[in-house]
Amino acid sequence: MALAACASSGTPQSSATPRPNKHAVYDPGVPPGPNQVVIYQFIFKPKVLTVPAGTTVSWVNHDIAAHTTTRNGGADQFESGDMRLNRVFTHTFETPGRYDYICFYHPGMKATVIVTPAHSTSESGSSTAAGQSASAPSAP
Q1: Are β-strands 48-52 and 78-79 bridged in parallel, bridged antiparallel, or unpaired?
Q2: Which letter, b or e, does each residue of 113-138 get, where b requires 16 or more Cβ atoms within 10 Å of its Cβ?
């Protein structure tokens, strides 16, 4: 009789703090925000993120498992440390280039941030890539 009552109620009988549900749904169909990488089901999404130099990228972990965002080679190294469920890590990319990174705990999890030259605004208001000059229109 007690089992039938427990199964039919659908509510916990304990007042203890509930533990995260290992089957919780985080809707992986929702795309990451701008300049954001979502960690879900042992995957970095998107696998490749392209941003201009000077951009701050954030990673958010939506997995029950802990993950890291680790780049330990090349010029611009970063390490998030232990990222548990819903933790966020940010890093600002100042130098154009390709930045491959992994999860230290799960080295099969790999992704890349590609940093392009920053854009600047000239006095005329046109946007140009850094290091390029905008030419003035010729007079008729």
Answers
A1: unpaired
A2: bebeebeeeeeeeeeeeeeeeeeeee
Nearest-angstrom CA–CA distance, 54 and 94: 5
Q: Is residue 103 classed exposed, middle or buried when 0-12, 13-18 and 19+ CB atoms within 10 A define those classes?
A: buried
Q: How far is 57 from 35, CA to CA, in rounded Å?
A: 5
Q: What is the pLDDT along the chain (140 residues), one digit of tens a residue?
A: 444 444 434 434 434 444 444 434 445 555 678 899 999 999 999 999 999 999 999 999 999 999 999 998 887 899 999 999 999 999 999 999 999 999 999 999 999 999 999 875 433 333 333 333 333 334 44
